[in-house]
Amino acid sequence: MGFLVKIFLVGAFSALAFSAPQAVAQTRSIPTSHAEVQLSFAPLVKRVAPAVVNIFTRTIVQERRVSPLFNDPFFRQFFGDRLPGGGTREREESSLGSGVIVDASGIIVTNRHVIEGADEIRVVLNDRREFEAEILQEDERSDLAVLKINTNEVTIPTAILAPEDTIEVGDLVIAIGNPFGVGQTVTSGIVSALARSRRGLTDFGVFIQTDAAINPGNSGGALVDMQGRVVGVNTAIYSKSGGSLGIGFAIPSSLVARMVEAAKNGGRIVRPWLGAHGQEVTAEIGEAIGLSPPRGVLIDFLSEGGSLMNAGLQQGDVVLAVDGRPIGDPLELRFRVSTKPIGSTAEFDFWRAGKILQTKVRLEAPPEDPPRNITIIQEGSPIDGAEVANLSPAVKEEFNLSVQGGGVVVLRVLNRGFARRLGLRQGDVIMAVNGRDITRVKDLIVSAKARPRTWEITILRGGRRISLQVG
User: Fold this and answer.
1) Catalytic annotation, pick one of 98, 142, 192, 219
2) What is the pTM of this model?
3) What is the residue extent of each domain of the chain?
């Protein structure tokens, strides 16, 4: 019986072995040309790789020489930050990133975090030529920076920025950069998602997501489509180990182009002001307002004189698309508008009372009203050492603040002063002091001159109200 079973099994496997290739042969044809046999990214790499550069930065850090003994909390209770020690010493820090040459005059785009705080920036081309670079423009909110090298009229390779929205999910892309400092490396993948929101990376958390391997050192490198155009600047990865897990993010070329244009013209980035606040339309909100399927951004607040109010939009309207491109959440709405220049117009599709309407919105710069009145508080109060300014639409846009009404924003906190010990941070909005509302800097100065036995300071941080108390 066992012998028969073995014969049967051998026969079955033999039948499978012979039948599988025959089945495959029936569905596939033999390649008939060299082009059908060879699939290579080599022509694209040869075209774009010379324009992808390595960026080396050097930063000099002043370091105090302090005995480890003074790290003990007991000693810090008496000395605070004014610890005795043996003077200071200089320590050099270096880092590595990537960049892309986008103009023959020597204009290079990269991530801001690549060059942040650098005392010296050197750019090394693929052919080993080296140049010193200066910063033309840097923008913390988008994590982009524009550099300039002096080419001395020597020809340098350049890459072309792709027009807006030229790629789709599933398109093949390649990523070029210098991961881990091993040298220029090329990886391939597809576009996994568009308009992907990743809060915490930048204020404009809208990215191209790709599974092309992106690793540390690739930041600032190029994400390239199959026509050899730069569709994005690689900026971050999702990783628990520091290595690529197939989830990488790139800043879209439309935002990069806007940054480059501003740098060339010598101006700072000024983003259009809609004068509105909204929220994503969830399934519950969609059901409540009768919008099916749920989509877009529900406008829940409009400012007087804002672009949307001037265009006729109302509280309760739902923005569905900008220039024909669907809007999924407030981050995407902000991104779509930020890629357009001041004074231009955008076509908004919006939903109101069961109807889809359209209107032209003229995009204006945020007004500086009231004037900033930048002041450093020096009144012997817990907020001494805080540099503050009045809240205006321009300040709110600059610091990405969703604040309705008044308040005073903290621009920076000096190293010496009570404000740093209190824990105030840049971007905090001081709303009240000891129960008194703060609407302007002058109100804060008056409150700071008071001499109460206890202080209660109410601030707005990240959308949350926080009460700071000093006895």
Assistant:
1) 219
2) 0.72
3) 48-149, 160-264, 276-362, 375-470
